[in-house]
Design brief:
- The structure holds 2 protein chains of 2 kinds.
- By secondary structure, chain A is mostly helical.
- Chain A is built from 7 helices and 1 strand.
- Helices cover about 85% and strands about 0% of the residues of chain A.
- Chain A starts with 5 loop residues before the first helix and ends in a 6-residue tail after the last helix.
- Chain B starts with 14 loop residues before the first helix and ends in a 5-residue tail after the last helix.
- The mean pLDDT of chain B is about 90.
- Classes of the chains: A mainly alpha, B alpha+beta.
């Protein structure tokens, strides 16, 4: 049996685990992709009203998910490290389902404010899950802050069509900036 | 009360093997090259340690081809996760024990 001190071995274990997690969880990519799509959706909502967002995301959500999945698959092959996909797929499916249900239910019952703030809240909840999976306190703070903005606009009784594009734009800009911030120090991998 | 050093197992209580299990527990699987670079060991050294872990049932090894390029993927098993958790617990217990003052 080797004679390394236990505290050194425990330190090595923790450092390796952290480094592996940081190599695995390239969270910048989905943030930039879905942030960009969200900014685009803001333009759609501004031009055609909040109800048009459902149609937009019907195409954009699966497309963004497929692009993100392809990116991770290609990256994993390149670096030789694979993450278990199930938790991420389940979280992504939860976001999409939750957003469509809250958006649809709100629209069906004439509760325009629910259909305006419900989907972004589902996105925030989903990104809190991603933050937990990636052990990223920064992402958790971003998701929580956006959820707070969502609830603030609801409390302020902002006109739903306006709230829809304001939130879409806010989420988009914040996600893109956050993604670019995460991307910057990891240009090597 | 038994001494926590008795809970350490030779198979896991080795720096490279502990490192392999630590990387694999955070991932679905890792390839040989990634493990070698992460642990800063030679091919031969890593190969020997992975073989020990595989024989003990703590990792699964899959050899595949990507086009013409051979690739060796290593994944931790359920037993491997349990063994790593046990080793970490034993190391913590050992640390707590060694930090206690000697009885007078």
């Amino acid at each position: 049996m080797t004679a390394e001190r236990p505290e050194i071995l425990l330190q090595d274990v923790e450092q390796l685990r952290q480094r592996t997690r940081s190599h695995l969880h390239a969270i910048w990519f989905p943030l930039v992709v879905f942030g960009g799509l969200s900014m685009l959706s803001a333009a759609v909502a501004w031009r055609f009203g909040g109800a048009a967002l459902g149609v937009f995301w019907l195409g954009a959500a699966p497309a963004g998910s497929l692009i993100t999945g392809a990116f991770y698959r290609r990256r994993e092959r390149r670096i030789g490290l694979e993450a278990p996909p199930a938790p991420y797929v389940i979280a992504a499916a939860g976001i999409i389902l939750g957003a469509f249900v809250t958006g649809g239910v709100g629209g069906a019952f004439g509760a325009a404010s629910v259909s305006a703030i419900g989907p972004p809240l589902c996105v925030s909840a989903g990104y809190l899950v991603f933050a937990r999976l990636a052990r990223s306190p920064g992402l958790a703070v971003v998701a929580a802050a956006l959820a707070a903005l969502d609830l603030t606009l609801a409390a302020a009784r902002m006109q739903p069509n306006r709230a829809a594009w304001v939130l879409a734009l806010a989420y988009g800009v914040v996600f893109v900036l956050t993604g670019l911030t995460y991307r910057a120090p990891r240009a090597g991998r | 009360m038994s001494h926590p050093v008795g809970d350490l197992t030779d198979t896991v209580h080795q720096r490279v093997r502990l490192g392999v299990l630590s990387v694999l527990t955070e991932s679905r699987r890792a390839d040989f090259g990634y493990l070698r670079d992460a642990l800063e060991v030679t091919d031969g050294n890593l190969s020997k340690h992975i073989q020990v872990l595989e024989i003990a049932g703590l990792v699964d090894v899959e050899k595949a081809f990507e086009g013409k390029r051979p690739r060796t993927w290593v994944a931790i098993t359920k037993a491997g996760r349990a063994a790593l958790a046990g080793e970490i617990a034993a190391l913590h217990a050992l640390l707590d024990r060694t930090n206690q003052p000697w009885p007078k």
